[in-house]
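Intended use. Records such as the Peptidase S8/S53 domain-containing protein entry shown here are meant for training and evaluating sequence-to-structure methods. They are not intended to support clinical decisions.
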Amino acid sequence: MGSAHAGKYVVMTQGQGLNATQIERIQAAGGTITAQLPQIGVAIVQAGDAFAADAGAIPGLQSVTRDVELQWDVPESEGAPISADAFANPPGSGDDDRFFDLQWGHAALDAAGAWNAGYRGAGATVAVLDSGAYCAHLDIAPNLIGGASFVDGESYCNTSGSSHGTHVAGTILAADNAIGTIGVAPEAKLLAVKVLSSATGSGDFAGIIQGIVWAVDNGANVINMSLGVRGGLPRSGQGANELSELINATKRAMQYAGKNEVLVVASAGNDGRDLDHDNSTMSFPGQLPGVLTVSALAPEGWAIDAGVDLDVLASYSNYGQSTIHFGAPGGDTRYPGNELCTVGPVTQVCWIFDAVFSTTSVSGGSHFYGWNAGTSMAAPHVSGVAALVYGKHPGIKASHVATILKQSADDVGKPGKDDSAGFGRVNAAQAVTY
C-alpha cells in the first residue's frame, strides 16, 4: 500500500478552516502550515514526529493524521514509443491523423458519431489528476490551458519519466490536427494536475486532496482520476484508523467537487477483484462516494479481426455491481502468440494492438505515441464523453451529466446493471443526442 509520509500531516477542522488561535497553536506545536483549504476544512502541515499528539489537544480540530505515501498502480507502456515522423501517410480510414486507425476504443464508443453531429468538447475543461503531462506534445499543447503540481520538486510539465498522464490526457482530448491521435473530445481544454511522482508513481493523500480542490477552483467540469492503489487500502488492521481519517478528508474534497457541479471519474483498479464480495480492502479512489467508477473492456485479436467483441471485461480489471458505473475501452494483452499484424501504418506483434493507443512521451521528443492497458485507460474514455456532454450543455449539473451517460450507454453485459460494465459501455454518439 504505502508508508507514512515523514513530516507531513493532514489536519481536519470541525468548521470551514483554521482560525487564528488554531494557527497559533499549530505553530507552537512545531507545525508549518503549507496549505490551507478552508473550502473543505482541511490544512496540510509539515512537522516533527510529536506533532500529532501535541496538536490533538487543540480545540476545534477533528483530526491530525500523518499523511501516507501511496504506491499507485501505474501500467507500464507496452512496446517502444512510435514517432509520428516515421509515417508520412495517413491510415486507410481517410482521416488525416496518422494513427486514428489504431484507436479501436473510439470505434467502440462511436466518438466519430458525436463529432459528425457537431460535438467535439468545445467549452468543456477536463482536469487530469495524474503524473503530469508532456506539455510540448504536439497533440497536447493546443488544448493545455494550465496546471499545477502537488508533488514536491516536480513540475506538472514532464520532460522525462512517467508518460502515464500524457497517455490519459491524449485519450480524452488530443487535438484533431493531422498529426497523430485524436481525443474523444478533441476541442476540450486540459488542466494537467500532478499528484503522482513521474519517477516513482507514488503520491500522497495531501496531493490528491489539494489537486481536487485546485481543479474545482480553476474551472474544471470533469476531473479524471486514472488512479488506483495497488492492492487497495486495508479496511482493518494496523493503520486502518489513520487511513480512515485520510479517506474522510478526501471525501470532503469529493463533496466539494459535487457541490460545484464537477463530475469525478475514476478507474476501478487492476487487481482483478470482485468488489461486491472482497471487503478486506477498499478500491481507492474508485469506491469513494460521488465518483463514477470505470472498469476496463478489451478485445482479443482485434488486429486480426476488427469484428471481434470490443466489450469483454479485461483480464485484470476489478468488477462488481456495487462499484462499477461504466465499462470503457481499457485494453488487454491476453491474446496469445507473437505473430505480426499491420494496422494502418504500423506493423507490430498482434497482441499489442489490443491495448489502448494514445499520446506518450520520451525525453527530447514532442510527438510520440504508444500503447498502455489498464483501467487507467478506460476512465479517460468516459471523461471524454462527459466532456462532450458538458460542451453541448453549458452550465449543466454534474448529476444530469451522469444521468445522460447512464441513459445513453450500451448495455453490453447481462440486461441491466452488471458486474463487468455497470450501466453499460459509454456511447459518445448517443450521449450527445440528449
